[in-house]
């Protein structure tokens, strides 16, 4: 019964919720710039943050919005599982990249010089 109730509200209601969320967000941004002479910046920022949070909550009530916020939550859980390198590992890896880049650039410049000399000698006739 619960899944039927969810599915019956799929298309039109979700579109209205997402549209209302976008309208709220655009209204908040517009108000932020329209009232820059009348209200001090911290008040405008606080109102913009409040409108953004409210618009996010309205968007989360739709199926697509709810799926998006679940995706963000699961992404954060996966981010926490990442094992970040230590400072020493990061420095060693960076140095290896720099050294390999220098070696490859020297090799490529030597090949370029050799091929350039070969072409010059062929074009000069001997």
List keywords for this structure.
126 residues; mainly alpha; 5 helices
Offer a concise description of the structure.
This protein has 126 residues and is an all-alpha fold.
Topology:
Elements: H1 2-8, H2 11-34, H3 41-60, H4 63-81, H5 87-124
Structure, described:
By secondary structure, the chain is mainly α. The chain folds into 2 domains: 1-82, no CATH class; 85-126. The chain has 5 helices and no strands. The chain has helices at 2-8, 11-34, 41-60, 63-81, 87-124. α2 runs antiparallel to α3 (41-60) and α3 crosses α4. The chain is elongated and about 80 Å long. The model has no long low-confidence stretch (mean pLDDT 88).
- How many individual β-strands? 0
**Helices and strands: which structural class?**
mainly alpha
- Could you estimate the helical fraction of the residues in percent? over 70%
What are the segments in which pLDDT stays under 50 over at least 5 consecutive residues?
none
Termini gap: 90 Å
> How many helices does DSSP assign?
5
Shape: elongated
Provide the number of structural domains. 2
Radius of gyration: 29 Å
Overall pLDDT confidence: 88
**SSE pattern:** HHHHH
Largest sheet: none
Q: How large is the share of residues in beta strands?
A: under 5%
